[in-house]
Structures are given as C-alpha cells and as structure tokens.
Amino acid sequence: MDFFAHQDKAKQTSRLLVSLFALAVITLICLTTLATAATVSLSHAQPFLPSEIVQVLGWETLVSIAFCITAIVALGSLYKFQQLAAGGMAVAESLGGHKLNVAALNDREKRALNIVEEMAIATGVPVPDVYLIEDEAINAFAAGHSPTDAVIGLTRGSLEKLSRDELQGVVAHEFSHILNGDIRLNTQIVGLLNGILIIGLLGHWLFRGPSASGRATIVRLPLLGLGLALIVFGYAGTLLGNLIKAAVSRQREFLADASAVQFTRNNLGIANALKKIGGYNLGSELSSPSAIEFGHILFAAGMKRSLLSLLATHPPLPVRIARLEPAWKGLYPDTNADCWKEDKPQPPTAVESQIAQFSAAVTPTPFQAALDAVDNSIARVNTPQVALGHQLLATIPSTIQQAAHDPFSARALIYHLLLHTDKSEQRRQLELLAKIAHPAVIREMQKLKPQMQALPSNARLALIDLCIPALRALVPQQYQIFKRNLIKLLHSDGKIEIWEWALYRVLIHALEGSPDRQRLSTRKNAGKDASRFILAAIAHSGNNEYLPAKRAYEKGLFALSLEITPLPSKADITLPRLDKAITIAKLTPPLEKPQLLKAVVITLNLNGLIEAEEIELLRAVADSLDCPMPPIMGNEN
Q1: Of 153, 285, 362, 516, whose CB has the highest number of CB atoms within 10 Å?
Q2: In this structure, what is the dihedral angle of CA atoms 295, 297, 299, 302, given to the nearest 10 degrees?
C-alpha cells in the first residue's frame, strides 16, 4: 500500500475509532441506567424488571444519567487531548524522557542522534526531537500528531545494548509509524480511552467516599451501589477499548517491522534487536507508570505480558522474529553483559559509491524520474535512499552539524541559506541583518561563512532539517523575532524568488505544522484556485518570459483537468498569497495530492530535465502538503 492510500485509510480508521468510541459510550449509558434502576428497586425491597425502567427512574433521571455519563467521558477525553496537544513531546516527558538533540554527551548518544538524522534526511521529514528515557530496558517509540511534531524516544538500554545496525532497524521501525500516520491514531486512542477510564475512576471515588455514621452509610447505599457499577462498567469499557487498541497495534507492528527491513535492506538488524530483548533480564518492560497508558506505541511490550493474549498490544517476540528470520532456531543471546561496540568503518558498497558521486556533484533529474518519484518515493524509503541520507549528512561539515544543534547558531545557518548569490543583493541583505539580528548571530554567520559557501546546494534542505530541533528550543519571543527577520530578509529586494519561498516554507512548516485556520477559504472552488496559483508560481519560477511561463502553466492545468485560465503576473506571486494557497491545498484529500504534485513536475519540465533547484522546490511543495519526499537521485532512470 502506498503513502496516499495509507493516509486515506488512516482517516477511515480514525472515523471508525470515533464510531466505536460512541458505541462504547452508549453501551455504558445503558448499563449504568440499568444498574441505577436495579439499585433503586432493591433499596426499596422491590423486584426489578428491565421493562419497568422508566417507571422506576422517570424520564428526567434517564436523561440526567445519559447527560452525566456523556459529560464525564467527554471531559475526560478533552482533558487528555489537551495534555497531548503539544504532540510527541508530551508523551516523551510523561515517560520521563529528556531531549537529546542539543545535549548529546557521549558516543552512544551521538550515534543514536546520527542514526535518527540520517533516517530523517532519507525520508524527507524534519529531524524529530530525540528523547532519551533513562531506563535500562530495551525499547523505543514514536509519538506525535504528525511528522512536524513527532518525536523519537529511545531508552538508555537500547543505546547500551544494541549495535548500530540493530539500533538503525529499531529507528527505521519507528519512522515507519511516523510515515504511515500511526502516531496520530495512537494519540487519538490514548485520548478517547482516557474518557472511558474516567468512568471507573469516578466509581472508585463514589465507592470510597468519606465514611460517616451508620445512618449516613445507609443513606449512601445507593451511591455505593452506583459506584460499584461504575467501576465494573468503566473497566468493562476500558477492556473493550484495550481489545480494539491491541488488535490495531499488533497489525501495525508487523507492518512497521516489514517497513524497517525495506528501509535498511537488513532483516537481521531489527531481528537481532528483538532477540536481545528476549535474552535480556530486563527485557522491554519500562519502569514508568505511564507505560500502561502508552504501551501500544512502544517498539516492544512495555509491561509484563497479559494473561489474556487478546489484550497484548504487541505480537509475541518469537512470532515477530520468525517473520523477519524464518531460519531462526529459537535461541536468544545473553544480553546482560556489556554489548557496546565501537562502529567500524565499512568499505562502501556499489550503491554507496554511486550515491557518493551524486552527492558530490549536483546534477539535473530526468523528467520521468521526477514524475515516478511522486508515486514511488513519497514516504516509501529504500536502501539507496537511506544510503543517500547518510552521504548527504556526510557532505555537511562537522562544524556546521554542530552549529545546527545549537539554538543560537542554527539561526545564523538559516540566515546564510537565504542569502542571494548576487553579491550586491547579498550585501544589502547583510546590511539589513546587521540592523535587525542579534550582533552575536552576525558574528556567528561570519565565523561559519567559509563552510557554508562550500555547502553543496542539494544539502540545503538536509541542513534545514538538522536545524529544526534546535530552533524548536527557541522561546516564543526569540522565535517570533527570528521569523520576523526571515520575512524581512525575503522582502529585502522587493520581490520573492520562488527558491527563497521554498526554503522558508519547509522551515515554517516544520516549526509550526498546523495551518493557520484564518487563511482557509469557504469558497466552493477554493481548492482549485489554490492549485492554479501554486502552478502559476511554479511556471514563473522556471521562465523569465511570459509566453514560456504561460505554456508551462497550461500544461500543469491540463494535467489537473482544470479549466485554462489567464496566468497571474509574476508581480502577483507574493509570500502571503503563496502561503494561503499552500494552506488551502494542504486540505486536499490524500488520494488527490499525487495529481497536484505530478502537475508541479509537468509545469517544471522544459527539456526533459528538472534542475536541482527545481527538485528542491518540488520537495518543498510536497513537504508543505504533508507528503514527505526523500531526496531524488539525479541519475535515476
């Protein structure tokens, strides 16, 4: 199944989950109503018949019970959703994690961070925040609402016990959850189930209420009965929710295992990681009490296996290993000893040598290769792309990589990326920055200038991705000043170049993610008009003259089966209008987005080749539409 089908199915699954949740709430209302009626009847020493429920309670009481149960569940869910509004960070902190991106202290932590960065560059998603869970168990997770707020969590045990290949397999498994939309569904499950769990907690509160005199206890008998019923029905609802959660999670774990093998072309990496869990005294069981709540998002079971296999959120280790390594004999290695080994440089493979040549020289991409990439590359990573991510990261000087991990220096790098190649324009931009940016940032820019000038142009998006975690660490006031300075930098020459907008759009999308709802339009044809405007901007980007731009624009419209309309002038292509068009186009149904991206490729095509800067633009549009596109090898056929 491709990325767009996954996204469409994820939406369907979300709707199904909400429907099942509503059904569970209705069931709880019915059961609670029956229990209340039975308690009232028995307290009056009268027999209870379900057919007489209206006579026993009355319509007002029935409505009140339904309202109270619905309100309790809704408030419980809303409270949890509010807690999780910050995305994956909220989950990571609940599990006791601390951010690693800007504070890697030793070789093991740096190796883990390097693997995540390589995988992010290879998949075309922003580098996620990496959280270290100080737990000796071997486990990991991905959490968040979308790739823009996703985090990767790794336990101390996974860093200490897994080799590079094994850790890469685990990280690839978690990236699969990000790309397939599993993290959003997992967050929804946590929020919805919390509402049902509140029913049981309220029952405990009623049942364990403050004791008083014997007379008061007699008066409280109905409340005690109601409390006991809420405990039973609340946990019955939770049991049903856990069954749904377990069934969904198990299938997605198998899919993520298979995707990890596809990413790395190394089935033994992830298989050996699972074996080490099986041979480890601490296994994968986390000590955090939140492991129960978030157990379904973990790489392996975060708590002791349930006696009821139907409640297990993960398939048994032997089953997962056998799928990955059919010849496995059922033996687990002794993982309790120190397993750390320094990574030894491996001789480059033929694929890596080919990719190294590509990363060293920027080359155009054949038109058909760019067109095929829309169908075959978006969120579908393979071994050459992972190797390319590794090579692209290697082309970025170590001093630049270190600067990208620092919130202060990362701003200087982004300013550098938006500088014009034209010397006079660049001088004007630097004079502007000297007035509006922090003096120390300007000094950092000068310090990093030689390395930035040597940076290959096809590594620019990769460098932006590296800077994302550090820029997320800016306090709100710092971020707003930084964003304001970027906009002024873009407007410094009185016009917006499309490549400038592409870099800016990738950055802002990664840092802010959710579209500005004020930019949306309720007009019937708003989506079509947004697509037209995007294609107009693309047409002008590759053509300085009007007629060639008009022909390119009309080719794009034809590919989208849109009516031919006049091409907007280049002066009409402004930053606010481009941002609004992208915000509207982002809401395009998943299965329709490939056509828009193919229309972009067709609009860019002039002579059968797509230039490297134009591929950067294509990837920026794809990224803004929540369709992460990996780097495209220029010599693909």
Answers
A1: 153
A2: -10
Q: Find where tokens 């009185």 sit.
A: 494
- The residue written with tokens 């995540």 in the block is 116
- Which residue, among 534, 583, 469, 527, has the nearest Cα to 99 in the 3D structure? 469
Beta-carbon neighbour count of residue 105 at 10 Å?
9
- Please give the Cα distance from 561 to 536 (Å, whole number): 15
Which residues are CB-neighbours of 294 under 8 A, at least 6 positions away? 91, 94, 95, 141, 143, 190, 302
DSSP secondary-structure letter at 50? G
* pLDDT tens for each residue of 363-390: 778 888 888 888 777 766 667 777 777 8
Work out the number of other CB atoms within 10 angstroms of the CB of residue 282: 18
Q: Which residues contact 36 (CB under 8 A, 6 or more apart)?
A: 57, 61, 65, 226, 229
Residues carrying CATH 3.30.2010.10, the chain: 89-180+251-324
Q: Out of 174, 285, 614, 616, pick the active-site residue.
A: 174
Q: pTM score, two decimals?
A: 0.81
Cα gap 520→271, rounded to integer Å: 46
| Token digits of residue 552 | 């390119």
User: Per residue in 75-99, pLDDT tens?
Assistant: 888 888 888 888 889 999 999 999 9
89-180+251-324, what's its fold?
Zincin-like (3.30.2010)
Contact 133, 112 (CB under 8 A): no
The C-alpha atoms of residue 250 and residue 316 are separated, in whole angstroms, by 9
